Each structure stands twice: as C-alpha cells, then as structure tokens.
Amino acid sequence: MELPTTHNWAVNQALRDFRTQVEERQAQAAEAPTRRRGQAYVVNQLRAFLRGSKEPTERETIITLERVLNLESLPPPFHTELNRLRKNKVVGADLLGKLAELYRVFGLGAYVDTQQSDQTEQTEQTFPRIVCSEALI
Question: What whole-number distance in Å separates Cα of residue 85 and Cα of residue 8?
Fold first, then answer.
C-alpha cells in the first residue's frame, strides 16, 4: 500500500496544530488565579506544622485541610475567616483546630467532592489526545 504524496505534510500540519493548541491551553492554565492572602498564609502554616507533626491522624487532617485550601473557588465567608486567622497570626495546633471547625461549619467535605469531580471532568477534556495505530492506516 502506497501513501499519498501529501501524507508527510498532513502529519506535520496536524502536529503543528496540536502543539499550538497545547501551548494555548497551557497559557490559559498558567493564568489561573493564585491563592488569596488568607489561603496562602494558612497553607504555609499548615505545611510548617505538617513537617513537625509525628501523629498519623494529625497528619491526615492537615493533608485533608490543605487539599481543601487548594481548591480554586471557596465560599467568600470562608475566605473572610481565613483572613481573620492570618490577621490574628494563629499558628500550630490552634490553627489546626480552627480550620477543622471551619471545615465542619462550612460543610467543605461535600464541597471538595463536587469540585474534584468537576475538575476531573475538565482535566479529561482539557488536552487533546492523539491516537496513532497501524490499524487506522
């Protein structure tokens, strides 16, 4: 079976188009909003506390809270509380206790599940996939 004379050109054009799309999408992803001040403060304090923590249940709690704080859109009242914690310079076990309380008050467990399922669906559709097989030729 002989390939058409324009086959290489078509494959190279498809590759160029693919690279262009990937670069555009990566640029859009890079423009994603960064953490707010309260979020950044609390995440930094949690990471510092995690490094010093030896208890497994405490470490799991910190990891869960950090996962929540890395979500893109959190309720505005939650951000208000995070800013309050930053202004009051709450650290260590006190910070962990306050965050656990906020987690329960705002019902962030269900919030995390819905946002993660939405992000999974978006990630699956974000970048194009090229499937190449000799069976397609």
Answer: 60
pLDDT tens-digit profile of 89-110? Answer: 999 999 999 999 999 999 888 8
Does residue 15 fall inside a structural domain? Answer: no
Q: Is 136 among the domain residues?
A: no
b/e per residue, 28-57, with b = 16+ CB within 10 A?
Answer: eeeeeeeeeebbebbbebbeebbeebeeee
Nearest to 70 by CA among 46, 37, 39, 97: 39
Give how many domains the chain has, as a whole number.
Answer: 1
Residue 17, domain member (yes or no)? no
Question: Does the pTM exceed 0.90?
Answer: no
Q: Is residue 4 part of a domain?
A: no
What's at 122, amino acid-wise? Q
**50 and 62 Cβ atoms separated by less than 8 Å:** yes
Token look-up 């893109």 returns 72
